[in-house]
Fold this protein.
Amino acid sequence: MSKKPDTPITPTKLKRRSPVPSDIIIAQEAELKPIAEIAEELGLLPDEFDLYGKYIAKVSPKVLERLADVPDGKYVDVTAITPTPLGEGKTTTTVGLSQALGAHLGKRVITAIRQPSQGPTFGIKGGAAGGGYSQVIPMEEFNLHLTGDIHAITAANNLIAAAIETRMYHETYQSDEALFDRLCPPDEDGQRAFGIGMLGRLENLGIDKTDPNELTKDEKHRFARLNVNRDTLTWRRATDTNDRLLREITVGQSPTEKDFNLKTSFYISVASELMAVLALSTS
């Protein structure tokens, strides 16, 4: 990845056993190389990667800017295949191919695979780190948390779900004036002000005003209420765990919710709307 990679990549020798032990034993017995050493061998600068412990790191996109004038390398795509009865599929093939190119042919090679979801990891499918002597290590961290991105998606998704349903609850039991007071509360001098996001909403509503005190009763009604239709609400909560009893649930059972019951469900975090946004993001 550097313009003139002077440091050779030195693969760690495999310690093969016969008969071949289970995947987890192979992973736990493997000799791990510090990720900082690998980054140095690849030609990454110290400020171009962030460490997540001793063996995991994130590479900064600014590497692309520094190496913009360097010719691209070869790209090999391992696409959908039918796995063997023992489970060797795309990941195992991809890792094994990289081992052959790197450790045996001496090529500078990097393996790019997707981050596993914790849900299938604890289901019948199992993890997505490969298998046997062609797997990603540390296997447990890779299959569970890695850098915490999926957990962040889960938290953000559920925050939005809570915000939507809480807004629906308040709009059910509060007047327009009460909602408006919550959105634009007066300060000590009795003055109100719109936030930046509120100005965008006013523009979308066709209300050309920037002073909350100038809004008419009808404009306050339109501004304060989202009027989300509970029958067409599709935003669901997310969890990165296989939990079949959460497929259909009812929320709002507490007496403090004043019988504001809502039938909803969970989907797995990696199939959520926010994960789709993250996958399609370019910056």
Remarks:
- Residues 149-173 form the longest helix (25 residues).
